Amino acid sequence: MQQMTLADFTRELSGNAPVPGGGGAAALCGALAAALSSMVASLTVGKKKYEAVREDMDALIRDAGRLRKEFLSLIDEDAEAFKPLAAAYRLPHWTEEEKAARRNEMEQALRRAAESPLRILEKTREAMALVREAAGKGSVIAVSDAGCAAAILEAAARCAALNVTVNTRLMEDQETAGGLERRSQEILSECQAESESIYLSVGSFLQRNQ
Amino acid sequence: MQQMTLADFTRELSGNAPVPGGGGAAALCGALAAALSSMVASLTVGKKKYEAVREDMDALIRDAGRLRKEFLSLIDEDAEAFKPLAAAYRLPHWTEEEKAARRNEMEQALRRAAESPLRILEKTREAMALVREAAGKGSVIAVSDAGCAAAILEAAARCAALNVTVNTRLMEDQETAGGLERRSQEILSECQAESESIYLSVGSFLQRNQ
User: Fold this and answer.
1) What is the pLDDT of residues B94-132, one digit of tens each?
2) Which of B201, B95, B69, B55 is nearest to B140 (CA)?
3) Taking the model in full, what pTM does it have?
4) Contacts of A28 in chain B (CB under 8 A)
5) Domain A19-208 classification at class level
6) Exposed/middle/buried for A80, CB within 10 Å: 0-12, 13-18, 19+?
7) CB A165 to CB B61 under 8 A?
8) Å from A72 to nearest chain B CA?
C-alpha cells in the first residue's frame, strides 16, 4: 500500500473494508516519525556547529531510513495478517465438529492478528531511541520536528496496543493471550514515558530559547 | 502533496528540506484520524442493530470526508506558509535600513507561519467531535479504530501546537504572539482531554467485553 497516494490511502481507510484500519494507520504513523527523526539529522549534518555529532547523525539517517521502510511494509503485513481471521469467520459452524474446527482456526488467526501490531510496537520502541537522539543531539532549528516525531510515535504505539487487545481479548488460550497482552502493555508504557519526556524537553527548550 | 505516494512523501519528509516537516505530518495525522472515524461509521451503517443511528453515521461520513480533504490541503498550505519566511531570512541585512525592512518582513512571515498550524489545530478540534461520536455511537466491532483515531488526532494537535510555538517565540510583537500562543494552548488542552477520555473509554470497553 506504500505506493498509494496520500489521498487514495486515506480514502481507502475511510471505507467499510476492515483493512487498512487502525493497525495500518499505526504503521504509517511509525513511518512518519522515523522520517521526522531522519529530517532532524539531515538538517544537522554538514553544519559546522554540529561537526562533533556528524557520525551519529549519519548513523541516525541510515537507521531511520531502514525503520521507515519497515514501517511501510508493516502496513501491508497488518492487512495480510487479517486475512486468515476473515477466512476463519466465514467457516461454516452448524455442527459441533464444524464449530470446533472454526474455533481452532479462529484461535490461530487471532494470535497472528495480535502478533502483527505487536511487531509495530517493537519497531516503535526502536524508533523512539532514534527520536531521543535526534532531540538530544540534532540541530536546534529542527528540535520541534523531533518533538513531533515523539508525539506521532506515541500515537503509533497506542494504536498498535489497541489492535493487540482487540484480538487477544477474543482468544480462548488465556495464557498465550495474557503473554501477548503483557508484552504489548509493557512496550506501550515504555514508549509513552519516553515520548512524554522527549516532548516536554522540546517544549521547554522552545519556551526557554526565545 | 496529497498525490504523492506514502513511500515518496515519507522519503521527502526524511530529507533536509524544511517542508514538509512537523506541520505537514500533523495535517496528515489529522487526515488519518478523520478517515478512521469515517471507517467506524462506514462499518456501522446498514447494520440492523444500528438502524437508530443510521442518519448520524451518514452525517459523520460526510463530515469526516470533508475534514479529511481539508487536512490533506493543509499539508500543502503549511508548506506554502513557510515560503515567505524562507524568503525573509534571505533578505540582505547589512545596513540599518535593510535590517529594519528584514525584521518587518520576518514578523509578517512568522505570523503567517504560526497561523497555519493554528488552522490545523482548529480542524483537529472539529475532527475530535466526530471521533467522540464514532466511539459513542458506532459499531462495537470498530471501536478500536475510534480509539486509534483519538490517539492519532491528539498527536496531530501536539505537533501543530509545537509548530505554532516555533514561530511565535521568534516574533517581536509580544501581544500578537501571546494571543496566537494562548489560542493554540487552549485548543491543545481541550483536544488532549477529549482524546484521553475517548481512548480510555475504548480501552475499558475492550477489557470489559471479552
Assistant:
1) 999 999 999 999 999 999 999 999 999 999 999 999 999
2) B201
3) 0.97
4) 6, 32
5) mainly alpha
6) exposed
7) no
8) 7
